[in-house]
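Usage example:
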Amino acid sequence: MKIIALYSMKGGVGKTAAAVNLAYLAASSGNSTLLLDMDPQASASYYFRIKPGKKHNVGSLIKGGKKLDKNIRETDFENLDLLPADLSYRNLDLVLDDLKKPQKKLRAVLSPLKKEYKYVFVDCPPNITLVSENIFNAADMIILPFIPTTLSYLTFEKLMGFFKEMNLKKSRIYSFFSMVEKRKKLHNQLIEELSAKKKRFLDTIIPYSTDVEKMGVYRAPLASYNKRCGASVAFNNLWKEIEKL
Amino acid sequence: MTPFLINTQQILVSNNSLSVRNLSSKLINPYSIRWHKPFNSAVSFLDSFDGRLFRAGYVLTLADQKILLKSKGEYFKVEWPMSSFPRGPEDFRHTKVKKLLKELLDIRSLTKILTVKVTANPFLILNADLKTIARCHLLYCKSTYPQTGDAVKSIFMFNPLRGYEADVKQFQKNLPSSTSYFDFSDALFKEYEIDLKNYSKPFYSLEGKKNISQAIYEILYKNFLILQKNEKGIINDIDIEFLHDYRVACRRMRSVLSLIKTVIDLPVNQMLQLDLKHIGIYSGPLRDLDVYLRREEEYKALLPKNWSQKEIHTIFIRLKKQRRQAYQNMLKMLKSAEYNEVVNRWKDFFANFDSHIIKDGSLLLTTSALILKWFKRIIKEGEMLTAVDPDDKFHSLRISCKKLRYLLEFFGPLYPQLLVNKAVKQLKKLQDNLGEFNDYSVQIDTLNQLLDSSGSKKSEFIKTVAGLISVLDYKMHQLRDEFYTLFADFSSQENIKLYNKLFG
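Running the assembly step on the lines above writes:
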C-alpha cells in the first residue's frame, strides 16, 4: 500500500482537485484505491456525492479498525472508495494532542488497510499542525500542488524547513505546477526558474481550467466526464509520472 | 463477462409482479432509478450429472465465451472461445482450474445442467444526492435447457455499494414480498427446481408398518427411475459413472426380484428378471473394460522398473478397441426395439402393480427372516471354502454377500441404525476382499484372452502379459490368505449375536 498525501499549507492551490483526479485515475487503471478526505470542508467527499454516516466523526477516525471500516463508502467508480470527512475533523488537533505518540497515530490507523488497498490518497487540510505532522509520518509521498507565485514559493521553503527541523525525510516531497496560466509572465518565469533549480518538481504542468472548476457542477472526477480536455490529459500525465516514482 | 454472474449479491425473485415499466412507481423518496442499456446473454451451468461441483459449493458457468468457476470465497475466469462445452479438467489449460476440477469431479465429466436466455436490464439506484447506492439488474430469464415452457422468471439483483447496505434494505422494503437468494445460480436452481442431489443412492421411505409389496414397489420404481436417468449419459458416453449407476440400479432391481420371490406373480417376476439379465449381457463387458482402462498406471507400477512399459500401453490400446466395440453393442441394445419393449413392460408393470401381487405380508417380519437366512447362508458357504477350492466358489460367496448387502441397504433403516451400521461395516470388509479377488480374476481372464487371441509372436508382449498374470495371481493368493481372517471375524459369535439381536 502506498500512501500519497496531497498537501499544502496554503489553501486554493488545487489539492482537492488533484487528490480526486489522481485517485480516480489510479483506480481506473485497476488499482484498489482509497481516498481519505481529511479536510473538514469535505470538498473531496462533495465531489463524490458522499456524506459521512451519522456515527462518523473524529472519534471513529482515531479509533480506526471496524469503526473506520464501517464508514468507508464505495464511490460510483470501480475500485475507488472514500472515507468522507466530517466537520468534527476541525478538532482533530485537540484529540491527537491528548494521545500518547500523537505524531504517528494516523499511520497506525491506516496500517490495517494494507491488505485491501494498493493506493491511499490523502486530501489534507491547509495548515501545518499536529494533523499535518501525522500525515507526514504516514505518507510515502507528499505531493505539493504549486501555483507559480512568490507566496507559493514561500510556503514550499517553509515546508522544507519544517521537515529539516523535525528530522523528516525530504526525499518524500514532490511538487507540481498547478493552476498555471500560460498567458501570465510571472507563472512562466517562475516555472522556468524553479524547474532548473529545484529537483523536487515533476514535469507535468496542470493548467488553470474552467473544466476543473466544473467538477463542482458535475460532482465527479474530471476524466469521468471529459477525458479529452487539456486539464484531463495533464492529470493523466501527472498520474503516470507519480506511478513511476 | 456479465457482472451479474460474478457478483455475490442480495437477490429477489419477484414472481413477475415487477417490471421495467412499473418499478419506478414502487419507489419512495428520496430514491430514483437510472436505467442503462439492456443486453442479451445465454448462460449455461455445467456440473457432473450428480452435482459434485454444486455439492462442494462451486458453480461453473459458461456465458459470453467465458467460463467462470465460482465458490463463496473465490472465482476463476477462463476464456472459452469454443462453441462446444468443456467435458472435464483435461479441457482446461488454467492450472488451478484444472487441478480443482480434477479434485471435485474425480472420474465424472461435466454435463449441461441448465441453460437460460437472459435479457438483462441494468440500472442504478440513486439517493437524494444522486449518488449510486446499488448497481442492479432486472433479469428476464427463460430456460432453453431443460425446456420448461414459456414461463419467464424475473429476477432482481441488488449489489449494494459498500457503506450503503442499510439504504438498499430500506429501498427493498417497498418492493412486493419475494424470496431472497444468495446469488444468480442459487436463484435459478431453486426457481427451475434443479435438484443436483446424488442420483446414485435412492432414498427409500420405508416403515415397518408397511406391507412387503409396498416396499418392493418403492425399491423397484426408484431404481427404475435411476436406470432411465442414466440412459442418456451412457448413449452420449459422457463418463463411465452413468453405466455404473445404471448397472447398480439394475442389480438392485434384480436382487429384490430374486430375493423376494413369493410376492409377485412368478411368471411376471421371472420375465422381469430376464429383462434385467438381458441388459447385463451388454452392460457387463463394457463395465469390466471401463474399470480395466483406468488401471494403466497401476499396471505400469506392477512390473519391474527396468521392464519396457511400451507393451503395457499396447495392451491398453487393444483394450480400448475392445471397449469401443462393447460400447457399440451397448448402444445398439439401448436403441433396439427389444429394449424399448423391456422399458414399456416395466412401465406397464408399475402401472398395474397391484394386479401382480399374489401374496403380501408384514414388511418387518419378511425382511428379518430374509436377512437372517442370507446371513446364515454366507456363514455356511464360507465355512465350506478351502484353500484348494476353485475361484468360482469365492465368486459365488461374493454374490451371496452382495445379496445380504442389498437387503441391509434396502431394509436396514427399519432397524436400530447404529447396530445395522456395525453389521454393514463387518460385511463390507469381507465384500472388499471378495470384490478385489474377483477383479483380479476377471483381469487375469482378460489377459489370457489377449494372449490367446493376439497371435503375437513378439516376445516382449508375451513377457509383459505373462508378468502381469503372475503378479495378479500372486495378489489373488494374498487375498485368499486375508479372506480367512476376515471371514473368522464375520462368522464370530459376536457377529452372530448381533444379527440375532437385530433380526432374530
